[in-house]
# Entry
Amino acid sequence: MQLLKPFSFCVVALTFGVVVAGCRSSASTQSESQILIDTDAAFARAAVASGTARAFRKYAAPDAMALPQGANPVRGRDQIFQSMLPDSGQLTWTPRGADLSKSGDLGYTWGEYQYRAFETNGIGAIRYGKYLTIWKKQPDHSWRFVTDIGNSSPPPK
Amino acid sequence: MQLLKPFSFCVVALTFGVVVAGCRSSASTQSESQILIDTDAAFARAAVASGTARAFRKYAAPDAMALPQGANPVRGRDQIFQSMLPDSGQLTWTPRGADLSKSGDLGYTWGEYQYRAFETNGIGAIRYGKYLTIWKKQPDHSWRFVTDIGNSSPPPK
# Structure
């Protein structure tokens, strides 16, 4: 294998340095914030698979806070879990956007949700809304939400 | 002035390095996130002084998104401003908490708001709620919100 000439090496090193510096100084790239989209999507799948309350308990940081519409703030993972019992409907959601800090420790997702209440006749009205979730990397490097809020939207046209 | 001996210099340098590393690896301190509390409080004062719509235009990033209760997402600073006209009431709020990324470029505040509709008889019912606002440091180092959402709360007891 032919060794790079010193000049070529400098060009390569300089290019690499510029690329690295560019990545570090710019806002988080789409691929970096994709980790939050993926985490939020996994959270949504868990809500379908094991119920909303259990999914929130799994993805909440210990000191998480929920800000539910029409109610006061709920502080703490266990308190959030208790406040969501019994699961009275099926909450599904889809993340639409995300951003991550340059340091990669704090970010957010937002998206749209649908809520279908369980009813005895099996036919529940669907309610629509949107949400904003703050994610914080935990000491074990997992992502857990620290704050979550949602509100109602009109039905899609 | 006496020069530091090489050993002393190493101890000083090492100590400084540990202190710096410690600062970088810990979560943001309360004093660091206080900048977001202060910015949000100034935002709230601007809403009282010059109206909600103008204050939102002043503190929104150009590509900001609002997620208003009962409505669809509103994207863009100018669109947010337009959506809030005419100011039909007085919105006041108080930040209650904040957190900032280690890199100091992204963070959030949350708090409680009161909304009093302007009515012809001068007596408007107060509506209560809470909010979550994402803040991002702009290229000129100012803090502007990039996402804002709120929802209703019960009246205080």
